[in-house]
Specification:
The chain is α+β, with helices and mostly antiparallel strands. It has four domains: 5-159, Phosphoribosylformylglycinamidine synthase subunit PurS (Mth169, Chain: A), CATH 3.30.1280; 187-247, no CATH class; 261-432 and 670-811, PurM-like, N-terminal domain (60s Ribosomal Protein L30, Chain: A, 2-Layer Sandwich), CATH 3.30.1330; 639-646 and 813-996, PurM-like C-terminal domain (Phosphoribosyl-aminoimidazole Synthetase, Chain A, domain 2). It is 32% helix and 23% strand. The protein has a seven-stranded mixed β-sheet, sandwiched between helices. Strands 35-37-34-38-36-39-40 form a seven-stranded mixed β-sheet, with helices on both faces. Strand 29 (731-738), helix 24 and strand 30 (769-775) form a beta-alpha-beta unit. The radius of gyration is 29 Å and the shape is globular.
């Protein structure tokens, strides 16, 4: 047999396109580079012969364009420095996992469990660069929280005969001992315990945040003293912390708030849905709401559609790629774990970032080594993470958005969602009814357990600070999860092999097993049976780890053998780790010894009730006085090329939306390929029914009034669905509250107002909430570039996602102007409502250097808007509309621009024809963000029928589509305010991110 360790380096023989991309990017950052070369390195620590190593190497290349070296370094034509980047020990290496499987397949062998495969990349930089500059380049190319790095000059590389072999093998000295935690300590020490975590044996280091306040710790202390009559073990305290975390229990939404005894979730969100369901009666389309991993609505008599939107903000701030990919594959598992298992059929995304041009650093601690990643690095990493998660899983990603505000610099917001499809019944029973039964085996399938993700749930319940643990970062493996998903959804579910299923997400086994045990009444787990990535994990680490790609199932004894055989056949690791009971006890053993023994009711319901109070002093922002711009054409051009209005085609074009062949209205619309705000998919090929997806948020409105911020978000999310052919009758909502500093009574007052608006407008429109999520501490505590202490809070942000069912996808409509001479109409009134608008922000930046806010926030009139939307549904059903777009951020000006750019046809309009209550300035007419409005084009032959439908409602015939690319906008006196063309607009709209 051959050497114990083999290093295979793969490189391109001629063109190195990846290197050219990196070279150009670094040139744009000011580095004087000529060329960048790259090798993909594979380190195989196994007993492999020379002949076998050649077979392996050949399987790793594309033979026409690539070549390889085995245990021999690659030397490019010319370079100054080489940087090798690989993962730190224990960090998930997805490519290595796939290569290991490839080796076993190509050699028809099973590698010894102690064998290991690792990957890395070496970058060779040729150019005029100094030693200091190569260190800066290295910082651009890696994240020290997850990567190891090695830098060699040309001479050192030659002297060492390459990079050498350094295996990132995990070595943990932790013992399997379980420690007792003394809670009989003063309150200040209890508070420190909750904030910093359990002390290690040396008493110098803490494990990381439990995120338990003094009230929770006092309750735990009392329980163990009076009921268990002992101190808790470390694994018990860690388990309670995960279960009681804000991330899992949503304590703020559940707490008494002022005079709302049952909390704002039940009062405003859940009760809204219950009231709507009662009113709809037989027309109720909700199947499962607020009870499962996702929400479910009726698609037709035979199928159910599920939907869930999650956030993965805190991990994405530390490692954007890992945080984002873990978020998207995690919410995929929410679909897989919904009911008896739904097939993921589409993904959503939404990203809130700081300005990517901002180069001023932030630091977690008062030293240079703790620097946060820049907004640009965070943006690039998050976008790529969702790319890999969706594309590699074979799930289309047709819908999403991009939003910028400087206050997302401390913590970005990363929204990811998944729509699922499942039969209404499985083996003759409802597919949304599941229950783990006493005697069922507890089975974990999918990935193995490591230290990744430890304290993820508690970490996400706090502000990002110097105490935030790097172990909270995980990296998802979409390929492993794809195999798991197919085996569960396509086979095990329909064979009826399990009785219940759930995602292994926040809190790991501690939460998934304990949640399922509520169905049966108890559980017993043996940690020895949990498969590990490497030895040395302590029991508490195994129990709360959030390592990815894991699903927990309950399998009846009579189905166990068949289930395990199926998983083995599909190459999926499945382990029996325990049994569900009806003992009302949560019991965990390690080496046969009980290490966790808790009352199940206390674990789930022992969290002490909190009584919170609010204040809310709404800001009065002076209205910025400024004259109507002298150069309205320049303003028009600028307004379609801002961060928040520019094309994000660079994201949409890299996210596969065709993979399951279900797309109808695509993310980029028309000849001009312009981002729409709504998409339509067709999940069942022998049905013409479709699923309509959209969303909305207005964080800038929170600076004025969070009630109307929430109202506008709801109205826009609904209107977007209506604009393509959806209906109010079959439309549901999801809420994602991302708040900040949520112990602050002012912030809680803002939250209460926003939640009340959710109730008021959901009930008014008859659109139930079917699922939701809250993330309450999106703050950053740290230091600026001068090492001055700072505290950055995001603007209170509410994402409203909307999902609707439409009867006939062939009647759906897109945003693009399609036919010359079609008449352009605006539906709905325009008001002087520019408070928090993109236009005021722009004017403030150019006139004073900072954004104007204003006070006149858009208001929502649901009664009037319902009449408009119902009439609009009729017009769409009768196919009277040639194009339609919902008017949202950026107002009429942006809507007109997008429709023209999408269709590559110009237009001429008269602002004097807009429906208004009072005469407004032309810039207000163009950029007001008044709600309830739609912009449409109509065939001249159909205008009478169209106008008849909207009789008595506010509509304006404002112009027509031209048989040219000219764009002409006239003012009150018919004067030409703007005279430009589609090509100019399109170029400006797409230029900002053209290098991405």
């Amino acid at each position: 047999m051959g050497k114990a360790c083999i290093r295979i380096e793969v490189f391109y023989q001629d063109k190195e396109f990846r290197g050219d991309v990196i070279c150009n990017k670094l040139k744009n950052l000011g580095f004087k580079l000529k060329k960048v070369y790259i090798t993909d390195n594979y380190l195989i620590n196994a007993n492999i012969s020379e002949n076998q190593s050649v077979i392996i190497a050949k399987s790793l290349i594309q033979s026409v364009t690539q070549s390889y070296n085995i245990n021999s370094p690659y030397f490019p034509n010319s370079f100054n420095y080489a940087i090798e980047i690989g993962f730190l020990p224990g960090v998930t290496d997805n490519v290595a996992h796939t290569v290991r499987e490839s080796i076993e397949d190509s050699l028809t062998i099973s590698l010894d469990p102690k064998s290991s495969v690792f990957t890395s990349k070496t970058f060779f930089f040729d150019g005029d660069i100094t030693e200091d500059e190569i260190i800066k380049i290295a910082m651009e190319q890696h994240n020290p929280l997850i990567h190891r790095i090695k830098i060699l000059s040309y001479n050192k590389y030659k002297e060492n005969n390459g990079m050498g072999v350094e295996l990132p093998i995990v070595q943990i000295s932790n013992s399997s001992a379980v420690t007792e935690v003394n809670l009989d300590i003063p309150n200040d020490e209890l508070e420190y315990l909750g904030r910093e975590g359990i002390p290690e044996k040396d008493n110098k280091k803490r494990r990381g945040p439990l995120a338990l306040d003094i009230f929770s710790l006092t309750s735990i202390k009392k329980y163990f003293k009076t009921i268990e009559k002992r101190n808790p073990t470390d694994i018990e305290l860690e388990s309670i912390a995960q279960t009681w975390s804000e991330h899992c229990k949503h304590t703020i939404f559940a707490s008494k708030l002022d005079d709302i005894d049952e909390g704002i979730y039940k009062e405003y969100i859940k009760n809204a849905t219950l009231e709507i369901k009662r009113k709809k009666g037989d027309r109720d389309f909700c199947v499962s709401v607020f009870e499962d991993n996702s929400g479910g609505i009726k698609f037709d008599e035979n199928f159910i559609i599920s939907d869930k939107v999650e956030t993965h903000n805190s991990p994405s701030a530390l490692d954007p790629f890992g945080g984002a990919i873990t978020g998207i594959v995690g919410v995929n598992r929410d679909a897989i774990g919904f009911g008896l298992g739904a097939k993921p059929i589409a993904n959503r995304f939404g990203f809130c970032f700081a300005n990517p041009s901002d180069k001023n650093p932030l630091f977690r601690e008062k030293n240079k080594e703790s620097m946060l990643l820049s907004p640009r690095r965070i943006m690039e990493g998050v976008i790529y993470g969702v790319n890999v998660g969706g594309n590699h899983s074979g799930i289309p990603t047709p819908q999403g958005f991009l939003y910028f505000d400087d206050r997302y610099k401390g913590k970005p917001l990363v929204f990811v969602g998944t729509i699922g499809l499942l039969p209404a019944t499985v083996n003759g029973i409802s597919s949304v009814e599941k229950r783990a039964m006493p005697g069922d085996y507890i089975i974990v399938v999918g990935g193995r357990v490591g230290r990744d993700g430890i304290h993820g749930a508690t970490f996400s319940s706090e502000a990002l600070s110097s105490g935030s643990p790097a172990t909270a970062v995980q990296i998802g493996d979409p390929i492993t999860q794809k195999k798991l998903s197919d085996a569960i959804i396509k086979e095990a579910r329909d064979k009826g092999l399990y009785s219940s299923i759930t995602d292994n997400g926040a809190g790991g086994l501690s939460c998934s097993v304990a949640e399922m045990a509520r169905e049966s009444g108890g559980f017993e787990v043996e940690l020895d049976n949990v498969p590990l990535k490497y030895p040395g994990l302590a029991p508490w680490q195994i129990w709360i780890s959030e390592s990815q790609e894991r699903i927990t199932l309950s399998v009846p004894p009579e189905n166990l053998d068949e289930f395990l055989q199926l998983m083995n056949k599909r190459g999926i690791e499945a382990s029996v780790i325990g049994i569900f009971t009806n003992s009302n006890r949560a019991i965990v053993k390690n080496h046969g010894k009980i290490v966790l023994d808790l009352d199940l009711d206390f674990l789930h319901n022992g969290l002490p009730p909190r009584a919170l109070t609010t204040t809310y002093s709404k800001k009065t922002n002076p209205f910025p006085e400024f004259p109507e711009p002298e150069k309205p054409e320049k303003v028009f051009h600028d307004m379609i090329s801002r961060l928040n209005t520019s094309s994000f085609e660079f994201i949409s074009s890299q996210y596969d939306h065709e993979v399951q062949a279900n797309s109808v209205i695509k993310p980029l619309q028309g000849k001009g390929r312009i981002n729409g705000n709504t998409t339509v998919i067709r999940p069942i090929f022998d049905s013409i029914k479709g699923v309509v997806l959209s969303q909305s948020l207005y964080p800038s409105y929170s600076d004025i009034d969070t009630y109307w911020m929430a109202a506008c978000s709801i109205d826009t999310a609904i209107r977007n669905i209506i604009s393509v052919g959806g209906t109010l009758e079959h439309l549901a909502l999801l809420d994602n509250f991302c708040w900040c500093d949520s112990n602050n009574p002012e912030r809680l007052g803002q939250l209460k107002d926003a939640a009340k608006a959710c109730y008021d407008f959901a009930v008014s429109y008859g659109t139930p909430f079917i699922s939701g999520k809250d993330s309450m501490f999106n703050d950053f505590k740290g230091y600026n570039e001068n090492f001055e202490q700072i505290f950055i809070s995001i603007p209170p942000t509410l994402l409203i996602s909307s999902i609707g069912i439409m009867e006939n996808v062939y009647k759906s409509q897109t945003i693009d102007f399609k036919f010359a001479d079609d008449i352009i109409y605006i539906i709905g009134e325009t008001y002087d409502e520019l408070g928090g608008s993109e236009y005021l922000a722009y004017m403030g930046e150019i006139l004073s250097g900072s954004k104007y806010i204003g006070t006149k926030i858009p208001r929502v009139d649901p009664d009037q808007n319902k009449k408009i939307y119902k009439s609009f549904e009729q017009a769409m059903d009768r196919e009277l509309i040639s194009s339609s777009i919902s008017i949202e951020q950026g107002g009429l000006g942006l809507a007109l621009s997008k429709s023209a750019m999408s269709g590559m046809l110009g237009f001429e309009i008269h602002l004097s024809n807009l429906p208004v209550r009072e005469k407004l300035r032309c810039d207000y007419l163009l950029y007001s963000e008044s709600q309830g409005r739609l912009l449409v084009s109509v065939d001249p032959k159909k205008t009478k029928k169209f106008e008849d439908i909207f009789k008595g409602l506010s509509i304006g015939k404002i112009g027509k589509i031209l048989n040219s690319k000219d764009i002409i906008i006239r003012g009150w006196n018919n004067e030409v305010l703007i005279n430009t063309d589609v090509e100019t607009l399109r170029s400006l709209h797409k230029q900002r991110f053209s290098n991405m």
